[in-house]
TrEMBL record:
Descriptive protein name: Phosphoglycolate phosphatase
GO biological processes: carbohydrate metabolic process; DNA repair; glycolate biosynthetic process
Key words of the record: Carbohydrate metabolism, Hydrolase, Magnesium, Metal-binding
Gene3D superfamilies to which the protein is assigned, alphabetical: HAD superfamily/HAD-like (3.40.50.1000), Putative phosphatase, domain 2 (1.10.150.240)
Organism: Paenirhodobacter ferrireducens
Gene (UniProt): gph
Enzyme type, top EC level: hydrolase
Required cofactor(s): Mg(2+)
Record: residues binding Mg(2+): D9, D11, D168
Length: 226
């Protein structure tokens, strides 16, 4: 029988990218005459794609609602952030878990709200891009997470069938629920609410635990649940 497909979120799940996103944000804000924001502020803006991030940057800078500025800063941020990977790290155990899943034959995909260009740049930097059969970014489809369309597309591209979604945030939990896929919550990412506030099948804090969780997944119970 085919092994279940595993679909992963990116920021806050596979990679700790806040330092680079924070740096690029503050550089663009400074160029436009705004004061720097803290790392924790910017961390709270990640997970709904670049337009949302820029919207939050401008709101926090007291310049929300200016659509011309929003468009300019979005373009400036995208240009500056693309390929900015020097401060980004894989979370511990990610490389080992992904390599083991791939070697065992699990189909793997990414479903992130990060646009495809910086997604590809960071995956290439860590030399893990070839592990994924499918990569859906925030600009791959007209809709972004929490719309279920990107996750359903990733699932379909992997051939459908049994699949799990692994993510770190409220957005991911809602997306998985709307797509009808079991959600595995990585607790060390950029979630704002407590773990108990996010619908999830299981929570884990260390990628070294993930192969065991997947190997013992109670598929029959999933099928029986409403
Ligand atoms: O907000 C983003 O750009 C990406 O966030 P995600 O990888 O957690 O979907
Ligand atoms: Mg995330």
């Amino acid at each position: 029988m085919t092994l279940p497909a595993l679909i992963f979120d990116l920021d806050g799940t596979l990679i700790d990218s806040v330092p680079d996103i924070h740096a690029a944000s503050n550089e663009v804000l400074a160029e436009n005459g705004f004061a720097p924001l803290t790392l924790m502020q910017v961390r709270g803006f990640i997970g709904r794609g670049v337009p949302h991030l820029v919207h939050c940057l401008l709101e926090a800078s007291g310049a929300g609602g200016d659509e011309v500025l929003q468009a300019r800063i979005t373009a400036e941020f995208s240009a500056r952030y693309e390929g900015a990977v020097g401060l980004t790290a894989l979370f511990p155990g990610v490389r080992e878990a992904l390599t083991a899943f791939r070697a065992a034959g699990h189909p793997l995909a990414i479903c992130t709200n990060k646009p495809l260009a910086p997604t590809s740049a960071v995956l290439r930097h860590f030399e893990i891009e070839p592990l994924f059969a499918t990569i859906i970014g925030g600009d791959s489809l007209p809709a972004r997470k929490p719309d279920p369309a990107p996750l359903l597309k990733a699932h379909q591209m992997l051939g459908g069938g049994r699949a799990l979604y692994v993510g770190d945030s409220e957005v991911d939990a809602e997306t998985a629920q709307r797509a009808g896929l079991p959600f595995l919550l990585f607790t060390e990412g950029y979630r704002k609410a407590p773990v108990s506030a996010l619908p999830h099948a299981i929570a884990f804090s260390d990628f070294a635990m993930l192969p065991g969780i997947v190997a013992h997944w109670p598929w029959q119970a999933d099928l029986a649940s409403p």
